[in-house]
From TrEMBL:
Similarity comment text for this entry: Belongs to the UPF0149 family.
PANTHER family assigned to the protein according to its UniProt record, in alphabetical order: UPF0149 PROTEIN YGFB (PTHR37528:SF1)
Organism lineage string: Bacteria, Pseudomonadati, Pseudomonadota, Gammaproteobacteria, Pseudomonadales
The protein's name in its UniProt record: Uncharacterized protein
Domain of life: Bacteria
GO CC field: cytosol
Amino acid sequence: MPIQNSPYQAFATLLTTSGHNVSPAELHGLLLGRSAAGAGFDHDSWLADAADLLEGEIQDNVRNALIGLQEMVKGELTGDDMTVVLLLPTDEAPLTERAIALGEWCQGFLSGFGLNYRDNALSTEGKEVLQDLAAISQVQDALDESDDGESDYMQVMEYLRVAPLLLFAETKKADEPAAAKPSLH
């Protein structure tokens, strides 16, 4: 499959031609971060957060793509697959380009999560996931074009495909009413 036809490349082209100098990976990370933090799936608040990152007016074609992206993320987070598809360059892209996008994705995720998470009651595991993402967002220069670099990249990517689900499940649990508590009456 030629690189030009990847969803990442298509989104990158859409953003660039619309005058937005933002990585699709960062945008997708932002969306997953805010969703995992419990922001819900209201289009308007997502578009407002996206507009802050995109710095400018969002044209209809970009707006439609953002809403489509949100619908996909909603399906992944609320479905049964237990994995999300990351909006990253294809495996044919140079490792350095993919590693930079991975870092941008993590930065976007941390921003989205930080902007929307209000509870501050994450488990130790949840906090470790956020620390891991912060560390991963800094590693893009550490991956080299080698079999080890490829392997490291793949392991990190697999981890990132489940990390949002863990955080989403955790923040969702915090939102559920504590129905099991006996009443005081």
